[in-house]
């Protein structure tokens, strides 16, 4: 079987991956589409650091990097839509041919493993993979599986919006219009928020923000967004050092700041800014099962159209080049792998 794997910091295509065999409660599926996520790009570039930082954290219910050896090939791909091929022993599930998506988690006799990066659990950058039967969601309403593959990043955006407590009449400012910022904009628009402002240096990303529901877009090169916007909620979706501190410095009194951007470097903030202005600072990650299901429903019902996000499709042999291409915001937003 063919699969794209991370090897020595680069994505390469293998054609000798053993065929996965479903066990009890598991389903073998054929991958129809898998989105390349920013966290995959982060792991390819900063895998050792991410694993080291994860091991330092206490209180995590699941360690997504447990047992990962960067000296071996690493399977990735967690934004997927697939077709049921066969079920494991004593497993009741959808019939073969059903299009499905799922929370990126595989349950087995040995426990639960996130489908994010692993030396053993195959992800969506492959021809076939295993999923957990109880977690499968059938793709409804004839939704294109390429669009259904973006259920996962849309759920990340929905989770950030739900955590923010934003109201319909609030002004929401989204700083950074990469895939997560765009998902936040889509969720805000779907929630009926009446004043959504987006800021990004990239003209292409600003156009995309408008297409996905922003009422107004700003170029930070022309001046701080806070010069003309008085937001009730700010969504930070950039993830580079200095952004959080700058937001705290410029945000209005009583503002709520939701941090969705993943910064891999140490960062410095001045707590005085947040204290003096009584700013509520919320960090967010992922989503819950209900938010995942709600995002799939929104896509299937046409409440959110992710067509503008998809800027490229590649086969397994071009995943490495796609990782490189995604570094240029003027070229791409979301590239799908279609095995």
UniProtKB/TrEMBL annotation:
Protein name, per record: Alcohol dehydrogenase
Keyword Membrane (UniProt): no
Keywords: Oxidoreductase
Domain Alcohol dehydrogenase-like N-terminal: from-to ranges: 23-140
Domain Alcohol dehydrogenase-like C-terminal: 179-300
Segments traversing the membrane: none
Pfam families assigned to the protein according to its UniProt record, in alphabetical order: ADH_N (PF08240), ADH_zinc_N (PF00107)
Molecular function terms from GO: oxidoreductase activity
InterPro entries recorded: ADH-like_C, ADH-like_N, GroES-like_sf, NAD(P)-bd_dom_sf
Top-level lineage group: Bacteria
The keyword Oxidoreductase appears for this protein: yes
SUPFAM superfamilies: GroES-like, NAD(P)-binding Rossmann-fold domains
Species of origin: Mycobacterium talmoniae
